[in-house]
């Protein structure tokens, strides 16, 4: 055999292989179970990386947590300044959940927020703590442990504030 025949045979074999791959990839993607399998793999991957929900950062990446924290604080403050207290408090609560020192942040927020808004924040953090405790079932993740510790801090500091408002 000469080099030309070998080259043509290799080209034909390569073309057949690529066609085979394309055909079976299309067949795999058209399978109705494929999307379900793909979604479960994505959920599993998110659980392994520590991402609790789509907006939450990877809890193993310090820079991602820091960016998320600053973004949530800024968005919360902006919304509260506009008068959208519910959404603003939710963003501040998200920031507290990923914060390394939630008690210190709560002290700063207590001095800078109006009393009613801070009381809403306390209630929201208690809800986060309750949800984390219910969802935990013995398997503590970093975010839920922080939420639980934040809830414990809030129980000691928040009850007096709420009582004062009522």
Written overview of the protein:
The chain is mostly helical. Helix content is 83%, strand content 0%. The protein has helices at residues 3-30, 32-49, 62-82, 85-98, 102-112, 115-136, 142-165. The protein is elongated, with a radius of gyration of 26 Å. Mean pLDDT is 77; it is low at 138-147 and 156-166.
Q: What is shown here, in short?
A:
The chain has 166 residues and is an all-alpha fold. It has helices at residues 3-30, 32-49, 62-82, 85-98, 102-112, 115-136, 142-165.
Please outline the helices and strands.
Layout: H1 3-30, H2 32-49, H3 62-82, H4 85-98, H5 102-112, H6 115-136, H7 142-165
Count, helices:
7
Radius of gyration: 26 Å
Distance between the termini: 95 Å
**Secondary structure tally: strands:** 0
The amount of beta strand, in percent, is under 5%
Strand count, sense and barrel status of the largest sheet are:
none
Uncertain stretches: 138-147, 156-166
Coarse morphology? elongated
Listing every helix as H and every strand as E from the N terminus to the C terminus, the arrangement reads HHHHHHH
The percentage helix is over 70%
Task: Output the structural class.
Answer: mainly alpha
Mean pLDDT: 77
């Amino acid at each position: 055999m000469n080099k030309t025949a070998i080259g043509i045979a290799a080209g034909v074999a390569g073309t057949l292989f690529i066609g085979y791959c394309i055909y079976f990839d299309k067949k795999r993607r058209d399978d109705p179970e494929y999307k379900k399998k793909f979604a479960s793999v994505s959920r599993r991957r998110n659980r392994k990386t520590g991402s609790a929900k789509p907006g939450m950062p990877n809890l193993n990446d310090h820079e991602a947590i820091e960016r998320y924290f600053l973004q949530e604080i800024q968005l919360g403050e902006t919304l509260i300044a506009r008068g959208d207290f519910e959404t603003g408090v939710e963003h501040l609560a998200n920031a507290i959940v990923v914060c390394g020192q939630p008690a210190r942040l709560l002290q700063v927020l207590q001095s800078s927020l109006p009393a009613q808004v801070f009381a809403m924040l306390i209630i929201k953090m208690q809800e986060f703590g309750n949800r984390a405790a219910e969802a935990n079932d013995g398997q503590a993740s970093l975010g839920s442990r922080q939420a639980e510790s934040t809830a414990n801090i809030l129980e000691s500091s928040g009850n007096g504030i709420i009582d004062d408002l009522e």
